[in-house]
Design brief:
There is one protein chain. By secondary structure, this protein is an all-beta fold. The protein has no helices and eleven strands. A hairpin with a 7-residue loop joins strand 9 and strand 10.
């Protein structure tokens, strides 16, 4: 039912910027928590930033001050603005949101397919 489509990834030089988008579609009643994860080859998937269902924003220390999460509720879209990118930011980035798709049901996690971010000179 629910699909999350990430876009905006690509190749950028160190110090450059990218903006990732995560568009949700389908029979969505509401979106609760919103988050971005990333995973580099051979490493565990890590949380980049989270907006809790209460609106609290939590950034990983490694991206604090460089990345910014935002959302457009009318479009059911979450964004990740990434500035001052470093080679260690190279990873596949995944969107993760809590959604409600059926009236009377609790929210559940939905994941995007991932978008590749490569930072290299």
């Amino acid at each position: 039912q629910v699909q999350l489509v990430e876009s905006g990834g690509g190749l950028v030089q160190p110090g450059g910027s990218l903006r990732l988008s995560c568009a949700a579609s389908g029979s969505i009643i509401s979106i609760y928590h919103k988050s971005w994860y990333r995973q580099a080859p051979g490493k565990q998937r890590e949380l980049v930033v989270l907006i809790t269902s209460n609106g609290r924003i939590q950034y990983a220390e490694s991206v604090k001050g460089r990345f910014t999460i935002s959302r457009d509720n009318a479009k059911n879209t979450v964004y990740l603005q990434m500035n001052s990118l470093k080679p260690e930011d190279k990873a596949v980035y995944y969107c993760n949101v809590g959604v409600v798709t059926t009236w009377g049901s609790a929210g559940y996690d939905s994941w995007g397919q991932g978008t590749q971010v490569t930072v290299s000179s």
